[in-house]
Structures are given as structure tokens and as C-alpha cells.
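Hi R.,

Here's the input for the zinc ion complex you asked about:
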Amino acid sequence: MMKIPADGIYILFDDSDYEDHPNAIFRKQAFHMNIKVGGVEEMSPEHILAIMDKPDCEHFVWVSKRIGKSEHIHFAWVYSHELQHLLRDISCHKLSIVGHFLNVTYGLIDPKVTRYYIDIPTEFDCDRRAKGIVTEIFGQEKCDRHILNQGQNPDRKDWAERMQDVEPSALFDVERETLDLLCQHKEPFKAQQRYLCKEEGMFCDLDIEEICAKRSLGNAI
Ligand SMILES: [Zn+2]
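And here is the predicted structure with zinc ion in place:
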């Protein structure tokens, strides 16, 4: 289903949740992190830091207790989503960086417009793949019902409406979609990038001008 390389990858199904953790990443339900490129997250629970610090830890996937204990179908969805982030990162790390940047900034560039994480092509791509995996394991009917159930939550209504029409095997050019989004709003994204680099030291190597000039992630980052 998903071919995960045997080396360099650590996956932790945690027996705790950290919903009050000062590091926002641990308040998430799950995440993937490229340790080799991005370095360890110093502000982490100790047993997690010990894993990230291992010399052969290149990628780290973390799944919270509440996802581990959730319905099997929900667990499978969230876990497949994170594994797709991992696989994308291995095949094109630059796309991961731009996806992460859009995740951080897309909601800020025009506060009048409500945006959902599903509007970010790299996130949509992971959910698209997750839908494919969940359908394979549980069948179409259960997958459709799961999406409908998720949509009962007002915060997930738009997500569910979008996901129910997704055909996982249809072609989706995640790189092109990502570049389209980034370059359509080039100037406000550049302003966000300058701010984040100056204030947080984040995304300093992200040259949006060059990426949009080349319309390729080739060597642009
Ligand atoms: Zn994601």
C-alpha cells in the first residue's frame, strides 16, 4: 500500500497526549518531521527527544494517544496522512518546505477569506491518499460513512464536503497546484516570508521570487 523505507525512520505511537504542551506541535493529533534537514525539536517530551537525537533518525512520525485509541478507521486515515507527508518529503523535500510555509501563512494573507487546511495542496494530497488507503482497507461504504460522520462536526463540514467527491486514483499534480497557489499570491506570501525569517528565523532560504520565476521547485530552494 505505502512503501516506507526500512532505514532512518522512527514512528512513535505515544501512550500520552500533550494538549497543554508549550510546543504547539505536540498539541496536534499527529505529525511528520524531517529531522535530518530541520533538526530536532528541542522543546519536546524527553522520551521523544531521545528518539529524535538518535544518530540514524532522519524522519520522525508521531501519533498521539487519542488518535491511537480512536476508531480504527480514523486512526488509519490520520496515520496514512502522515505517512504520505513522509513519502512526499523523501521524494521532494522542497515541496514539503513550501507546503509547510503555506500551512503557516495561508490563513494570514487575507484575513477576510476563511481558509481550511484542505485548501493547501500538500494537505489535500495527503488526505486524498488517506482516502485511497482507507477505502482499500475498509471498503467504499465505510469510508463514505466515516467522511459523513466527520462532517457532523461543524469544523469539519467543509473538509467532509470536499473529501466526499475526491477520487483517490485521479491524477493530482501536487507540485503544480502548490506553485499555482504560492505564485497567485506571490507578494503577500513574500511579505510573510520576510517577516517569518526576520522574527523567527524560519523559511529564510525560501526564495519565492525565484520559485515563481522558474515555476519549478527544481533547484529553487
Ligand atoms: Zn498534514
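One thing worth noting: The first strand starts at residue 9 and ends at 13.

Cheers,
M.
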